[in-house]
């Protein structure tokens, strides 16, 4: 992702106020208190169940078959809670994840 394509929450502070309504600006301001809270983000490509004896036999170059197919969405967790599904992408020489679906929570 190029630097110009990245958008942080701090960019909402002043640049787009004329385009945002007053309620949206207030919500962004309310969120400022949580900007520095660290969260753990996990992207799960798939899962596999195997016996410990099989696990111990794995060596370099071993292939572990996962429960997902190529091209199938991966799960994105924040603090061990499913929040989105997405796709694996390559950004320069690194792997990344793009979110394609936000999972709505039943929590109120």
TrEMBL record:
Membrane topology category: Peripheral membrane protein
A Gene Ontology molecular function term of the record: cytoskeletal motor activity
Keywords: Bacterial flagellum, Cell membrane, Cell projection, Chemotaxis, Cilium, Flagellar rotation, Flagellum, Membrane
GO CC term, one of those recorded: bacterial-type flagellum basal body
The Flagellar motor switch protein FliN-like C-terminal domain, residue ranges: 33-103
Subcellular location: Cell membrane; Bacterial flagellum basal body
SUPFAM superfamilies: Surface presentation of antigens (SPOA)
BP term (GO), one: bacterial-type flagellum-dependent cell motility
One Pfam family linked to the record: FliMN_C
Domain of life: Bacteria
Role description: FliN is one of three proteins (FliG, FliN, FliM) that form the rotor-mounted switch complex (C ring), located at the base of the basal body. This complex interacts with the CheY and CheZ chemotaxis proteins, in addition to contacting components of the motor that determine the direction of flagellar rotation.
Entry's family note: Belongs to the FliN/MopA/SpaO family.
Protein name (database record): Flagellar motor switch protein FliN
Gene of this entry: fliN
């Amino acid at each position: 992702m190029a630097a110009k394509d990245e958008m942080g929450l701090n960019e909402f502070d002043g640049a787009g106020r004329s385009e945002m309504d007053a309620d949206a600006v207030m919500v962004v301001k309310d969120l400022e208190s949580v900007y520095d809270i660290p969260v753990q983000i996990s992207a799960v490509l798939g899962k596999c169940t195997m016996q410990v004896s099989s696990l111990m036999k794995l060596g370099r170059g071993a292939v572990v078959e996962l429960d997902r197919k190529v091209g199938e969405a991966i799960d994105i967790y924040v603090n061990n809670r499913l929040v989105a599904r997405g796709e694996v992408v390559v950004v320069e020489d690194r792997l990344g994840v793009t979110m394609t679906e936000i999972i709505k929570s039943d929590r109120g």
